[in-house]
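Quick one, probably user error.
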């Protein structure tokens, strides 16, 4: 999978959160805006699940609370994650120019992969601070638990 941009986004921070879409995990590098800081604080407190709707060039959904907006005219492109109307998160797989507040940018997938993942359907996303690579799949977790029990039993017997 190729990334959307080799160059870091101007105004980006070192803060990274993850956007889970089904089995996929997207790396969201946060911008240096008040809204992005507030979003990170929400995610630091708990995972945030958002029902998203498709809009032919983006997925958008209500965060459930307003964030500080600093709207400016932005020519959004695939991978941009923006705030609309103080409370709607927008994840772009296409292009649009409108007044938004920058939240961040998806780093780890290409434009085509992002479009395939997001376009043409309503989805549910989960914003999380947990690296999805560190979260074992349920079957894997069960297998690890079983293997741990066997090893503990073997230690008792030996």
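Nope, works fine. Designed sequence:
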């Amino acid at each position: 999978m190729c990334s959307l941009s080799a160059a870091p986004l101007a105004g980006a921070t070192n803060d990274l959160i993850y956007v889970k879409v089904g089995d996929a995990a997207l790396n969201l590098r946060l911008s240096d805006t008040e809204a992005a800081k507030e979003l990170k604080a929400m995610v630091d407190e708990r995972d945030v699940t958002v029902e998203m709707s498709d809009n032919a060039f983006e997925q958008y959904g209500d965060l459930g609370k307003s964030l500080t907006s600093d709207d400016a005219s932005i020519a959004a492109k695939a991978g941009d994650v923006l705030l609309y109307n103080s409370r709607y998160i927008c994840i772009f797989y296409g292009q649009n120019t409108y007044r938004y507040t920058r939240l961040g940018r998806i780093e780890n997938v290409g434009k085509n992969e992002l479009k395939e993942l997001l376009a043409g359907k309503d989805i549910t996303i989960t914003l999380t601070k947990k690296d999805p690579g560190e979260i074992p799949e349920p079957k894997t977790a069960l297998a690890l638990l079983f293997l741990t029990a066997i090893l503990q039993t073997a230690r008792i017997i030996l």
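The chain has one domain: 12-132.
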